[in-house]
Specification:
This protein is globular. Strand 1 and strand 2 form a beta hairpin. The chain is α+β, with helices and mostly antiparallel strands. It is built from three helices and four strands. The longest helix has 18 residues. Helix 2 packs across helix 3. The chain has one domain: 2-Layer Sandwich (Ribosomal Protein S5, domain 2). A four-stranded mixed sheet has the order 1-2-4-3, with helices on both faces.
Amino acid sequence: MSNFCLPKKIRVLKRAQFLTLSKQGRKVYTDSFLAIFCVGTTHNNRIGITVSKKVGNAVERNRIKRIIREYFRHNKENISGPKDINIIARKGLTSLANRQIIEKLDKLFTKIDVAK
């Protein structure tokens, strides 16, 4: 069960880490997400999630963040290499069902793997 946890060492938490990602990272776009990633400083993949107020109200933003965290939690072993990833949600996600958001995340992470 510990394989599916999301401890602090797997998350990008500090503002300085987000700024480093935005300056040094590569960008991958989809219609619903923007991902910024670079080679990680730790031995495992780390994720940061950004959902601005432009996306929706607090309930909708938290729903999107929960879906992204859950997707990453279940698929973190499938992502190659130690990477720091910041996922930025775009407008229009709140009208989609959970299954559709997961399909869009699948597309995003395949683009990240291809963009090495």
